[in-house]
Structure formats: C-alpha cells, structure tokens
Amino acid sequence: MNGPVKRKSPVISTRLAFLLFFTLFYWGVHFISGKSNLQLSQIVFNMFAGVFTGAIIHVAMAKFFGPLLFGRGFCGWVCWNASLFELLPIRKVKKRIPEKHFMYKYVVLIIALVVPGFFIAAGYSFLSPEAQFKWLLTENALIYLVGTVLALFLGDRRAFCKYLCPAGALMTLTSPKSVLKIEKNHLSCSRCRRCEEVCPMDVPIMEYITAGQRVSHPECILCTECVNNCPKNCLTVGIGKKSDATPEFGKSF
Question: How far is CA 103 from the centre of its chain?
C-alpha cells in the first residue's frame, strides 16, 4: 500500500454532484444565511454556555450516531470541505503514506476541542450569529488552505481527510460498526486490486475480501468507487452479513 498511484482528473459523478449540492446547501442555508456554525469547535462554545443548538444535533447525528448506520458516508457524499478537495486539479502521482500517520487526525481532534476552551477562558463566547460566522470563516479558511497544500504536495485529494480531519477522527469511533458496508457478492474476484487503486482513502479492501469479511476499515467513506470500478462487478454495498452466507464469499478467486 506504499507505492505511488496514478491519479485521474476529477469526473463529475453522481457522488461529486451530491458533494457540490450539499456544500451549496450548507454554505447557503446554515452558514451564510443562518450564520450558524455546525463544526466541532462550536459544540465546545455551546456546552460551556449551556446552550443547545444545531451544531450539537449535526455533530451527534452526522459524526457520531449516524456512522453506526452509514459509516463515514458523510465524508464521501455530503462534506463541504471534501467537495473542494475533490475538485482540485491534481496531476502528480499520488504518494501513499503509511497508515500509522492516520493517527495525526486524533491529535487535531483534541486541538479542535481544546483551543475553544482558551478563548472561553479569555472571555470570548462566539455564540452570536456574527461571532459564529467569523469563527466559521477563519476555521474553514485554515482547513481549505492546509488541505489544498497537502493535496497538491502529496498528489492526494483526500490527504486532509485521512491525516488531519478532526471530524473524520470522531467518526472512526463508530463507523467500523456501521450497518452499511462494502462487501463481496457471489461473483468471482480476479484479485486485480483495482478496488484498492481507486480507493481515495487507501483502504486495504482485498484484505477484507480475502478473509471473507465485510470492509469495516475506519477510513472507508462508503464512496463506492471500488464498487463502480470493479471489472468483475463483485463488490456491493450490503446490510448486515447477508453475503457472508454465500458459499463463494471471499473465496472465489
């Protein structure tokens, strides 16, 4: 999993269309019009003030409890940060970094939860719509800047998602238990590893398929790129463990 992978230009697919649509929705309805910050940092401000707002509902449903149903599908289909990264005109060969570096995002998660505490201690609340909007713009500008630089440097549009995204770190706590997962159907797998080549999150899909298991890797964003690009059409998105009962599941190579 450490070799270079040739990158393709972005294609306007159904998934990318969803990403763009929801990005416009979030920025148009919640961020610009409503001036409501839905990100992790806002939860800290709200909790210290004893205020229950949309940020708490959003993070709870999309980033913690939601992944129990659809894994990190939020990352793959409706994330307002990922939509920008997936449109970047990457031309260089993708560099795959060892999986141990995925741990950096947990450090960023801690920072994202601790930094607001310093502002609270200094007397800032960021509860008013105007204050929330300013914090949102500052935080997202930093995310877009760092994510873009990292993507261009590594030739990897999802580099920020894998190594630095605090929301992604939170979702990995529950996403491996997701009801929806990528799995092998009854068709034969040729072990061409095309699924791993196109996976934007460098998930070792073949390890799960070979072991006769559903893909429960915490980095899987359920983007279905592996399903759509499998030349044998032997991957699918399944519920529960229904395909495990198929005699050929994980064995038909």
Answer: 14
**Which residue, 142, 171, 200, sits at the end of a domain?**
171
Residues 103 and 66 occupy one common structural domain: yes
The one-letter code for the residue type at 203 is V
Domain residue limits at 64: 14-171
Q: What are the CA-CA distances from residue 85 to residues 14, 107, 130, 154, 227 (Å)?
A: 16, 21, 27, 12, 22
The three-state secondary structure class of 72 is: coil
Q: Looking at the structure, tell me whether residues 140 and 192 fall in a common domain.
A: no
Q: Is 46 helix (H, G, I), strand (E, B) or coil?
A: helix
Distance between CA atoms of 139 and 39, rounded to whole angstroms? Answer: 9
pLDDT per position as a tens digit, 201-234: 999 999 999 998 999 999 999 999 999 999 999 9
Residue 1 lies in a domain: no
Domain contains 45: yes
What is the greatest pairwise CA distance in the chain? 63
Q: What is the pLDDT of residues 73-103, one digit of tens each?
A: 999 999 999 999 999 998 888 888 888 899 9
